[in-house]
Specification:
Layout: H1 3-10, H2 22-28, H3 38-52, E1 56-57, H4 74-77, E2 95-100, H5 105-114, E3 123-125, E4 132-135, E5 146-148
Parallel strand pairs: 3-5
Antiparallel strand pairs: 1-2, 2-4, 3-4
Length: 149
């Protein structure tokens, strides 16, 4: 599936406003899709459409830093310790935090693990949180389809 096809299918489930921060949306509008990683979007499509088959929400209400985050986002600005790198996958358009309607985050993680063969590439999932964070950061030294951190 090409990048354009992935975006076209993904737009059936998500608007760009749900996937990028307000700063990016204000400056780039619908062109903000360009900042989202292709593998991330493909995995998001497969997780939403084929694995979970339930509505998912990224940015919503007052929370607009759950998808792509730019350098102006407060979460990024709060990382002011010069000794602390902030290399979050959110900054690179490779990850996001999602809430699934009708399913807990733990149930979602379990279902994704059960159907990991459907994923187009390996993913990482954050464990022990009440949202579904997944990203497509390449993991050196492992061939596991899902890494939990």
């Amino acid at each position: 599936m090409t990048r354009k096809e992935i975006i076209k299918h993904l737009q059936k489930f998500f608007s760009i406003e749900e996937l990028v921060c307000d700063h990016t949306l204000k400056q780039w509008g619908d062109r903000s899709w360009q900042f989202l990683d292709t593998d991330y979007m493909h995995c998001l499509l497969v997780i939403r459409r084929d694995i979970l088959q339930l509505p998912m929400v990224c940015n919503h209400g007052e929370s607009h830093q759950r998808g792509l985050r730019c350098n102006l986002c407060q979460i990024c600005k709060d990382k002011t310790d010069q000794d602390q790198l902030y290399l979050s996958t959110h900054r690179f358009g490779k990850g996001g935090d999602h809430t699934i309607k009708g399913m807990t985050a733990e149930q979602a993680r379990t279902r994704i693990k059960e159907q990991k063969h459907l994923l187009p590439c390996p993913i990482r999932m954050e464990k022990g949180v009440n949202w579904l964070h997944f990203d497509v950061l390449d993991q050196y030294g492992t061939d596991d389809k899902i890494i939990e951190f």
